[in-house]
Amino acid sequence: MKFTETPLPGAFVIELQKREDDRGFFARFFCKDELAVHGLSNEIVQANNSLSRVSGTLRGMHFQKYPKGEDKIVRCIRGSFLDVIIDLRPESKSFMRHFAIMLSAENRVSLYVPKGFAHGFMTMEPDTEAFYLVTEKYSPECERGVRYNDPAFGIHWPMEPVEISSKDCSYPAFDSKNHSLL
Fold first, then answer.
1. The predicted structure's pLDDT at residue 129
2. Distances in whole angstroms, Cα of residue 38 to Cα of each of 6, 42, 87, 139
3. Residue 5 Cα distances to 15, 36, 55, 153, 154, angstroms
4. Is residue 67 part of a domain?
5. CB proximity list for 45: less than 8 A, separation 6 or greater
6. Is residue 2 situated within a structural domain?
7. pTM of the model
8. Residues with a known catalytic role
9. pLDDT digits (tens, 9 = 90+) for 106-128
10. Are residues 47 and 137 in contact, defined by beta-carbon separation less than 8 angstroms?
11. How many domains does the chain have?
């Protein structure tokens, strides 16, 4: 596995290191020891899979607040999506900055998303599937989000969402001075 830190400290792009032959290839998608070497949380407690039937579906920007914050490893297993994270850690030098990367079944790249980050994605193809490993069980009482199109973050999505939940549309504008949602 090859780890490359993004411009947002603590978030990493993870690429497979393939061993190839005539049959195809073999590569590790997850390794507790390699995550630990990079100082990343490796206590996976849940694996999630989502299917978005329509290209242009937007899911996000979600996170779980303390004490149920979660680290995620996100990968696309069918189709493709633009994966976006926002650093919501007030003490971070990259507070309120975002990072975006195209994840696809073809490129097999993953994104490590640390606690304190909002996460979301927009599908680029129909029937796109995301698969992610998380370090905390889902806790509805700690679920939070920020608006995907909040000008405070300056995210440029590839298109207007075709499908988006009413919840994801209704998050209030982010107030950088009031972190009560964190």
1. 98
2. 13, 10, 19, 27
3. 11, 14, 29, 20, 21
4. yes
5. 134, 135, 136, 137
6. no
7. 0.94
8. 62, 132
9. 999 999 999 999 999 999 999 99
10. no
11. 1
